[in-house]
Amino acid sequence: MLNFLSSMPGAVAQGIIWGIMAMGVYITFRILDVADLTVDGSMATGGATMVVCMTAGMNAGTAMLIAFAAGCLAGLLTGIFHTKFGIPAILSGILTQLILYSVNLRIMSQKANLPLSVEKYDLLLSLRDLRGAIIVGVIFVAVIIAVMYWFFGTELGHSLRATGCNQNMARANGINTDTNKIIGLVLSNGIVAISGALLAQYQGFADVNMGRGAIVIGLAAVIIGEVLLSRIFKNFALKLLAAVIGGIIYYIVITLVLKAGMNANDLKMFSALVVAVFLGIPFWKRKISEKRTAKEAASNA
User: Fold this and answer.
1) Rounded mean pLDDT, 22-29
2) What is the 3 state secondary structure string of the chain?
3) pTM beyond 0.70, yes or no
């Protein structure tokens, strides 16, 4: 138990960083109702861009902005595949993800891994300072939520929501749904790239495979946050916060099962099962409610 408690700050720090990625997933998954698998590649793009920019002499702030822009370009490519080529969203994300694997290798000069030492560079956060990493992560979460809350309160933001709710109705009201999908994918993957840039600094390196399975973790964070907090977190900003809290809970659970002796090679399987269970909870609740209603109707009859 003491060993588990001592590892809690690390789990919280990682949960916050991956929670930022989950906010990007929330935009496509919940707002646009689009299944976007680009995030497995764009997260690594953000990390690779961050490391290369900092090793080239840029400061962390400038490198973060460039990493964000790189993620936006990844989302733009997926959006073009989906809207201009008529390719289904899930396949568009897979195509971009495959392209990004080669792009990320080129960004890192054909190296699969690039180090970023906190001793050589002025990083925003590091694994060596967990308290500082948590504080920086919380600041980024607060800023991103504030910006997203403002953006989705604008006319353009409302049109993005309308596109996700009902495309036919949105088009009938003169909304360009294709453009909105592209904007949503650009914004989503930009946020995911920020998460990747923070993760690269936190762990001290960028890896071409660092985003593999990111969509599963992002979905897990979103679903966990919704299942546990949807009744009290009604506001849009709080829903984004719920995704971050879901990421923290996810990593606390991961830390717990690892400390309990689970084989690390089984983590992917465990993550998929967690997502499946939490995705199934709303379905089970609805089925139970329908059975209860049917019984009440039968008894009243």
Assistant:
1) 95
2) CHHHHHCHHHHHHHHHHHHHHHHHHHHHHHHCCCCCCCHHHHHHHHHHHHHHHHHCCCCHHHHHHHHHHHHHHHHHHHHHHHHHCCCCHHHHHHHHHHHHHHHHHHHCCCCCEEECCCCCCCCCCECCEHHHHHHHHHHHHHHHHHHHHHHCCCHHHHHHHHHHHCHHHHHHCCCCHHHHHHHHHHHHHHHHHHHHHHHHHHHCEEECCCCCCHHHHHHHHHHHHHHHHCCCCCCHHHHHHHHHHHHHHHHHHHHHHHHCCCCHHHHHHHHHHHHHHHHHHHHHHHHHHHHHHHHHHHHHC
3) yes
Find out whether 39 and 189 touch, Cβ atoms under 8 Å: yes
Please, what CATH class does the domain formed by 2-300 belong to? mainly alpha
Q: What is the pLDDT of residues 257-268, one digit of tens each?
A: 877 777 878 877
Candidate from 23-37, 63-77, 133-147 with smallest mean pLDDT = 23-37
According to DSSP, the residues that pair with 129 across neighbouring strands are 126
Average pLDDT over residues 158-173: 93
Q: What is the residue extent of each domain of the chain?
A: 2-300
The residue-averaged pLDDT of 29-45 equals 93
Mean pLDDT, residues 270-298:
82
